[in-house]
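Here is the promised in-class demo. Please do not try to memorize the tokens; focus on the logic of going from shape to residues.
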């Protein structure tokens, strides 16, 4: 069994919107692990939930220079600021990142736009093809069914929760294995075609968890953990606080998930907020003991908000300097922690894009990495782990599902009544009769191919 698992792991590939590729054979560049790339809400009235503070964008103000100061004062409240819905704009912004790497290296970006927020897998395909980069998208629980009523205490509650769990799990498994929009394994034959436009998901999440971890979210996380455990795909979680992470990881483990392939997004933001309430020493101790020492992965991706110089946002969000200090402190305690850190720019709104005065996707390579290199405890090997090797390990999980067996067509022998598979040269037919083999054919021939009723009497 161990040998089979190692063999499967060796065959595992990384799934992108353009299909699977072998990370060992392909030039796999720097990986941005938590970004928003493109969204396509069904309606302009759609609400967009911020992953940073769980507030809802609802103010309808055009994104113009005249309104820029107003938007910058409370950016998460403005719908137009939170909508990244232009393919041309996305391409232009990503080019700023890809232009900073070698020509023969492909940058990799994970788009964390959920289906509820308007995930646009077709647009991601077009962007990936146009720019020659790798784009990956995640699967989340389906949005088409209403939320379960968790206050209902009648006897049907457990069965309703189980139905929801099964529906969520099957939906995410299909998007990972067979592709978005597929309904069953019957679609598999269409996915194996070189011309297939089907897009498969590459990871589970992001799953946003609220303070108090309500029952409805517990039911969803059970499905996420079960799918992750069955597929070995990474799971991305957004926790409400640093102290809540330990309990969430316990829940993932108890539900069949894999902590070592669970990514705690916005880890720098969680650390910053806890340090604001207590102090950084205590916050780092919690991160070490309750997250890293348990094997989970942390993603530093929230510093770019304060880098955009919003009003007093350096109080609410971590800075580039604080992330550098955090990484340095962690690696000074144990260099092996470098294997559990991934990086990203954390772009989620227009104001962070270079076109609108933000630092954009290149902030990781142009600002964060040079500052990390200045720290004595952080080596080039550590940065390679954070930017490339750790993501490569996390994302290398996809193994082609077995091809479904072709349904077999069976005939019934006119003489012995046994069912058999009609293999050419091994069965015979005459008039309206079929025979499973020469024995039954001879038996019928001896009675002159009489009708079966008479043949049986003979």
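The designed amino acids, position by position:
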């Amino acid at each position: 069994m161990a040998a089979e698992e190692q063999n499967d792991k060796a065959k595992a590939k990384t799934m992108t919107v353009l299909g699977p590729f072998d990370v060992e054979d392909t030039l796999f560049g720097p990986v941005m692990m938590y970004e928003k790339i493109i969204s396509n809400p069904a309606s302009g009235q759609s609400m967009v939930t911020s992953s940073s503070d769980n507030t809802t964008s609802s103010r309808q103000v055009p994104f113009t220079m005249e309104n820029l100061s107003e938007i910058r004062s409370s950016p998460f409240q403005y719908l137009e600021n939170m909508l990244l819905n232009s393919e041309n704009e996305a391409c232009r912004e990503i080019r700023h990142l890809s232009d900073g790497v070698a020509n023969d290296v492909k940058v990799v970006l994970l788009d964390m736009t959920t289906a509820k927020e308007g995930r646009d897998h077709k647009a991601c395909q077009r962007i990936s093809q146009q720019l020659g980069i790798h784009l990956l998208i995640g699967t989340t629980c389906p949005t088409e069914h209403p939320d379960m009523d968790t206050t209902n205490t009648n006897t049907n509650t457990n069965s309703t929760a189980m139905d929801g769990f099964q529906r969520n799990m099957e939906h995410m498994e299909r998007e990972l294995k067979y592709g978005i929009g597929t309904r069953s394994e019957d679609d598999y034959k269409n996915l194996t075609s070189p011309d297939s436009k089907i897009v498969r998901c590459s990871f589970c999440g992001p799953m946003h968890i609220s303070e108090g971890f309500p029952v409805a979210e517990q039911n969803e996380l059970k499905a996420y953990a079960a799918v992750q455990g069955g597929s070995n795909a990474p799971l991305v979680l957004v926790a409400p606080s640093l102290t809540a992470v330990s309990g969430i990881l316990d829940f993932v483990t108890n539900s069949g998930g894999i902590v070592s392939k669970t990514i705690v997004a916005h880890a720098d933001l969680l650390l910053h907020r806890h340090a604001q309430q207590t102090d950084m020493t205590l916050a780092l101790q919690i991160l070490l003991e309750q997250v890293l020492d348990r094997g989970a992965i942390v993603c530093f991706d929230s510093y770019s908000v304060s880098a955009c110089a919003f009003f007093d946002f350096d109080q609410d969000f971590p800075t580039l300097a604080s992330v550098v200090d955090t990484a340095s402190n962690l690696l000074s305690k144990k260099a092996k922690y470098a294997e559990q850190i991934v990086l990203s720019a954390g772009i989620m709104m227009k104001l962070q894009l270079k076109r609108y005065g933000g630092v954009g996707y290149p902030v990781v390579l142009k600002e964060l990495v040079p500052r990390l290199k200045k720290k004595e405890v952080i080596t080039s090997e550590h940065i390679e782990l954070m930017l490339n090797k750790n993501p490569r390990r996390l994302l290398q999980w996809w193994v082609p599902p077995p091809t479904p067996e072709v349904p077999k067509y069976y005939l019934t022998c006119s003489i012995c009544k046994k069912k058999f598979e009609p293999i050419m040269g091994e069965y015979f037919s005459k008039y309206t009769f079929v025979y499973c083999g020469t024995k039954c054919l001879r038996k019928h021939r001896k009675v002159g191919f009489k009708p079966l009723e008479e043949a049986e009497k003979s």
